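Hi V.,

You were right to ask for the full record rather than a summary. Here it is.
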Amino acid sequence: MDAEFREFVSSRGRSLLRSAYLLTGNLADAEDLVQSALAKTYQAWDRIEDRKALDGYVRRAMVNTHISWWRRRRVDEYPTDEIPDQPAADTSGNSELHDTLQRAIDRLPQRMRAAVVLRFFEDMTEAEVADVLGVSQGTVKSTVSRAVAKLRTDADLLAE
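Predicted structure:
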């Protein structure tokens, strides 16, 4: 069991981290998210009979965990008139368009962001996205459609 799990993590780890980064927008949170999802997967390893479904299982665990974290954090965050000092991120390796697109995606509501990331950045089919998110294909289609419409009217993207 341990060797098979290690093989899965080594072969899919980078892809999972990329998905987590696109969900969270922060490398540290993405690493935590992948770690949490893999821990849940490891605990359920013996119960997962279809090894072909592992990728979907882990991605579903990542989305659920991220939503859970987001809901918990949301209670602790309150609007304020003062903007706290924040350290500037090192964006020297990223293009300006990439940064603009990332910010636009970050502004999308959680469900839309998850659908867009899975559909376009992970190149999943609508059926796969529906399976990972636990919704119907129609919900995926409408959610992605509304997200793309929001991105098309995003002021920062229009300026680019």
